[in-house]
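Field reference: sequence -> structure
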Amino acid sequence: MSNSSLFKVHTLGCGSAKPSPHHNTSCTVVEHNSSLYMIDCGEGAQKAFAQKKLKLNRLSHIFLTHLHGDHVFGLPGLIGTLGLQDKGGSITIHTFAEGEKILTQIFEFFDRDTPFEIKFNILNPHKEEIALETRKLRVRTVPLKHRINCVGYVFEEKEKPRHIIREMCDFHKVPVWMMNSIKMGSDFQRDDGVIVPNHILTRDPTPAMSYAHIGDTSYSSAIAGKVGPVELLMHETTYLEDLQQMASERGHSTARQAALFARESGAKHLLTGHYSSRYNDDSLFLKEAKEVFPNTILNKEGLTLSLPIK
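Structure field:
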């Protein structure tokens, strides 16, 4: 888990709805290059943010999976804290139409004097969409199966440029102005007309990384197929297998079902989370998931995973 990674996942909260002395409610921060992206904002998120020594001024997007309280009750406090720090610019909240309506009323009452603009990106919970696209990153949604509208998010790096082999480029006299084109895969034609294939001039690019955040949902192999292979998958593990029926009735999954989902989606690593407060020993989730999917990581507050996972 190299500290030099440009793609990290920070866990601020991995408990479920009922308060627990062991865990904070749902909140994850994805760090990519110099930007921070928050997924859900449970109670106390701004304190957990500070404890991780993350910089609030680098946060400009908040992605809400759904509108249950344990995923959104931290927002008024977080927005207030951002205001007290004189954050400028804007912050975008990705949510559904009803989320914009509810949160706008809350912010107008509690956070009316914020020095920054609060924007909303309205998502359709019933179809896959691109929630955000930057020069290097794409965030897409995956509809989930919960008691209310709910989506998961897949963070995908775009294909990276190839690596220049300096000595070969110098040997074939590739001009500096062509280097970007060569990095993007172009061949090079020398002055004598000889075509130098790109693979002579470059090495393969650094693999693009991806992270899928699949929060509150019933198990579904069909959804697993829509997530696709990722380096790291966080899939909720609210219950153990002996409570599978309860999990299904409440729109949640067991640790074993999360492991099946990871295997079916082609994920390289599974991260547990959203633990029910009825359990005092989190290692039970790890044990159950590993029986199906050995590359499982036990989630906890304060955990930072750098991609790729070493």
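Note: The chain has a mean pLDDT of 95.
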